[in-house]
Amino acid sequence: MTAELVRGQNHPLSEVRLEVRISAGKPIVAGATLSDEQGRVRGVEWVAHPGAPTLPGLEVSKQAAADHRLAFDLGALPQDVHRVSVLLALPTGVGGPVRFGAVAAPFVAVTGLDGREVASYTVTGLDTESAVVALELYRRQGAWKVRAVGQGYAGGLADLLADQGLPEARQLAAGINEAVARGMARSVAAPPPRTPDADRSRQTAAPAQGPEQPYSGAGPQGAQGTVPPQQNPYTPAPQGATADGTARAGGPAQPGLSPAAPPSPSTAGGPVDYSHPGRQTTAPPPPPPPPTAPPAQPGQPAQPVAGDATGWSMEERLYNQVWGMFEDLARTVAAYRSAVDFADSRMEKELDQVLSDPRNRIGGQGDAAREAARAKHAQLVDQARAALDRDLAQLTAEAEVVEPALPMAYARWDNPVWHGYRAPMEIPMALRLGDLRLPETENLSIPMLVRLPLERGLWIDSGRTSLEGTLADADQVRRLAMDTAVAHAARLLAVYPAGEFTVHVIDPAGTGASSLAPLTQSGVLGSPPAAGAAGVADVLNRLTQRVDLVQMALRGGAADSLPPDLDTAEQLLIVNDFPHGFDDRAVTQLRYLADEGPAVGVHLMMVADREDATAYGPLLDPLWRSLLRITPVPDDHLADPWVGHAWTYEPALVPANSQVLQRVLAQVAEARRSWNH
Questions:
Q1: Distance CA 73, CA 60 (A)
Q2: Which of 363, 574, 602, 675 has the smallest set of CB atoms within 10 Å of its CB?
Q3: Three-state secondary structure along 160-215?
Q4: pLDDT tens profile 452-473
Q5: What is the rounded distance in angstroms from the CA atom of residue 105 to the CA atom of residue 127?
Q6: Which residues contact 15 (CB under 8 A, 6 or more apart)?
Q7: SS3 409
Q8: How does 111-142 read in b/e, with b if 16+ C-beta sit within 10 Å?
Q9: What is the spatial distance between Cα 308 and Cα 294, in angstroms, rounded to a whole number?
Q10: pLDDT digits (tens, 9 = 90+) for 373-394
Q11: Which residues, at least 6 apart from 145, have a Cβ–Cβ distance to it below 8 Å?
């Protein structure tokens, strides 16, 4: 039976491996401190926070999120640790609430690994405080107990950490806030609720995430794009993203057309009624346990298993596992490069010392010293390479298990899952845009996933790429760019429920007709590709009018008053060969769709060479910056601000001579006809 604690009450713990689940309604920071018998935190190494989420026996969330799951193994804590304090704080400098009195009271629950709730506590009575010690797990006479604390601090994390005896409290608090702000900048926002009649759409909020995703995550900024370490490069920044409140067990843990909800008391500025009968007072049910790997042989690494990350469904587990693989690859390559840089600098320093002594510049003594320095350098580099190869072998083994298990939205076009295609009944969490790899990992790539619905448009660059030896023929690159756009559009049509995604095409001169054949022949387009100035103006006028109508309805709280003939499905506009066929008014409308469209379900996919638009001057720079740039050939343009890598992007193309695209689109068209009837 669950013990519902009040402030100051304690409860015995019969297990040492536990989870602490936190629900707050708004993104908050969760962390933990370790302290000795006197309740003193001995140093920053005794604080687990988003910037350093793992300590012996303890793992916390890596980003701010509305829901958290913290993992504890009390038996693995250092012997001189007698107390673990669970900390909650409001992120600063991100435009959110600045005091707990303005948000719903946080709910904290201690559960076993099977999800059984042991004790819970609702942290009430907070007002101006921006940080709070919610719970204490403490050792008493060899046994562990939990105590409800609820001690708040108006001075935030700095005052909280200082009260626990940490000398570097202010510096650490500033570092935590900075790390959280970076994570939220590259996270993907949770999708708003869909209209009530869209019962087949995904109703669960996205996990609080970010390698944004390679990804999403989290994300790309500027025309060159960036890959978030925890969220797909689509965003998120890293975007943006929702911060992922789960942590990978060895790694880490996404708007559509929806009516505007009436303001709640907390958002309208009135007092918060914590006794509302609809308020949740118990922890959510636990997710089903992930699959477990068979026991490893002594001295051998554990065998990887598809879906061994946290999540409420296999789809979410695989998504989190791919993000974890991305993070692991980024970290191991960063460690290798750092070790090589250290070896280089050490050798240079030793050689400088040898050459600084005139006696060593000639003769055998100098030669011996130089040879010794080079030998040390080679030894260090070999050690770093051995560690890299070991980690890459493990990641490669994991990728070989995960890739065949991916659902359609995440799978390559050559995956057999496409041969059993059936129209889905709900929107997936994310979509695969391609693969990411690094120069050191030619034989290993990680799927590049972006959260759905799309929050940034896509720019498929039909111009020159930065990698040599790809395709030199400009006409071939343009053709391949349009093939890439068609493949992405087909994937979007295939993974959305029938009738919930509509594709429009602008092809002013008709140069993309051959590439567009799979879409036009299958009948999945909302209308034939628009050609000429009149066709361009018609499509842009209809889509900008749709954006205006939906924006006005949402802002006025009258989503149910939209015209009955308005297509409420997500809209995708493919623009080929931009800016040919566009006048100044059309360019302005295109920028408007890129900026305002995603929030109301209108998305943009441009196939263009930026150099062709130089005649417009800097007018189009904001347009390029608002889109995620991808290429039709492998290109190392995706910058990762997390560890500074330049990731090589490989597009997700349909295999040559394969008919899978035509077969899938035929079934999509049949599902759309059945849905319309």
A1: 12
A2: 363
A3: HHHHCCCCCHHHHHHHHHHHHHHHHHCCCCCCCCCCCCCCCCCCCCCCCCCCCCCC
A4: 999 899 999 988 655 444 445 7
A5: 10
A6: 112, 113, 118
A7: helix
A8: beeeeebbbbbbbeebeebbbbbbbbbbbeee
A9: 12
A10: 889 999 999 999 999 999 999 9
A11: 10, 11, 12, 13, 137, 138
Amino acid at 32: A
Closest alpha carbon to 110 in 241, 263, 242, 282: 282
Question: Packing angle between helix 169-185 and helix 156-163, nearest 10 degrees?
Answer: 140
Q: Which two tokens stand for residue 493?
A: 């049509």
Quick one: CA torsion of 235, 490, 462, 330, rounded to 10 degrees? Answer: 40
Q: How many whole angstroms separate alpha carbon 47 and alpha carbon 30?
A: 11
pLDDT of 72 strictly over 60: yes
Which among 144, 214, 38, 309 is positioned nearest to 649, based on CA atoms?
214
User: How much of the chain exceeds pLDDT 90, in percent?
Assistant: 43
The letter for the amino acid at 569 is A
Question: Which amino acid is located at 242 in the chain?
Answer: T
Q: Which token pair is 48?
A: 């687990």
39: its two tokens: 């309740």
Q: Which residue has the tokens 């099977």?
A: 114
DSSP3 helix / strand / coil % (the chain, rounded to 5): 35, 20, 45
DSSP state of 226: B
